[in-house]
Input
Amino acid sequence: MKVVCISDTHGHHEKVAVPDGDLLVHAGDVTRHGTVDDVGRFATWIAALPHPRKIVVAGNHDWALQREPQAARRALSGVPGLTYLEDSGCEVDGLKVWGSPWTPRFLTWAFQLPRGSALHRRWQLIPDDTDLLVVHGPPKGILDRVGGVLPKLAAAATTQSLHVGCASLTAAAKRIAPRLVVFGHIHEGYGIEARDGTTYVNASICNARYRPVNEAVVVHL
Ligand code: 5GP
Ligand code: MN
Ligand code: MN
Output
C-alpha cells in the first residue's frame, strides 16, 4: 500500500504537489485560523485528489473541529473516501488505523492538554493492534526538535529541552509498535526516522514561518 503523508498545510494546500497513492494521510493543522470556512476550502481541495482513501486528524490550529464540531465535521464528511479521526479508528484494506489530535499545552490552542496523565489517558485509548497511528504532534525525542535562535535562548535560560514532543506518546508508540506513525506540528522536525521496527514521519509541509516548502512523504506498507 502506497501511503502519502502530509501535515501542517495551514491553508496553503493548493500549493502542495501531492503524489498519487492508495491512502492519503493529513496529520492536522489543515488551517491557519481554524474557521469552518477554512475547513470547507480544505475539504473541496482534498475531495479533488485521486486517492481512494483519506485520513484526516485535527491540529491545534483547527479550532472549528473543536468549537463547532457539527459544522466542521459536516464539511469533511462530504468528501468521498475521507475518514476524520478524533480518538477513533478505522480500517483501510486490512490496515488498522487510529487518529488523535491532542498535543501538549503550549500557549492557547485547540486540542491541547497538560503534559502527563491527561495526555497519557488519550494514548491509552489507542488499540494494541494499531498498524498506522496518526497524531498531530510528535513523540518526545523523535523529529520533535524546535529550531531558531529564540527557542534556543529560551531553552538555555530554562534548561528546557529543545525536544518538545510528548513523552507519554513515546512510551505508547513503543508499547504498541505500529508499523507507521505520522505526525507534524513541530515544523522544523520534518523528516523520516526508523526506530524499533516503527517508521516515524514528521510530514510538516510548512516551515516554521508557515511557508509550504516541504514535499509529501511517501511510505510503502
Ligand atoms: P503550530 O503553531 O503550527 O502548531 O506550530 C508551529 C511552530 O510553533 C512549531 O514548528 C514550533 O516551532 C512552535 N511550537 C509549537 N508547539 C510548540 C511547543 O510545544 N514548544 C515550543 N517550544 N515550540 C512549539
Ligand atoms: Mn502547524
Ligand atoms: Mn500544530
About this structure: The chain has one domain: 2-220. Residues 8, 29, 60-61, 104, 106, 146, 151, 164, 185-188, 208 surround guanosine-5'-monophosphate (ligand 1) (CB under 6 Å). The mean pLDDT is 96.
